[in-house]
Specification:
Order of helices and strands: HHH
Radius of gyration: 18 Å
Number of strands: 0
Number of domains: 1
Distance between the termini: 32 Å
């Protein structure tokens, strides 16, 4: 599993956990209510995942990553 996928999964997990904990603290005790809160929470990161221009997970992020890798390689060559 690559680093980008780990970041995406952590984003989903954080959103899910916070929503379920909040729903529980507000009195939602049934599994159905907690599951609905979790599904709603995952909707936000899912929307980011399908947005190709999202700076964290979309196409823009891929382009930035490639450019940063090029700059890092060029910097290593200069230091040698």
């Amino acid at each position: 599993m690559n680093e980008k996928m780990k970041q995406v999964l952590c984003s989903y997990a954080r959103s899910f956990l916070v929503a379920v904990m909040t729903a529980y603290a507000m009195g939602a005790m049934s599994i159905e209510d907690l599951a609905i809160a979790g599904v709603i929470a995952v909707a936000g990161p899912a929307i980011r995942a399908v947005n190709p221009k999202d700076p964290a997970f979309g196409i823009v992020a891929d382009i930035v990553e490639v450019e940063l890798n090029k700059l890092a390689k060029a910097d290593k060559r200069k230091k040698k």
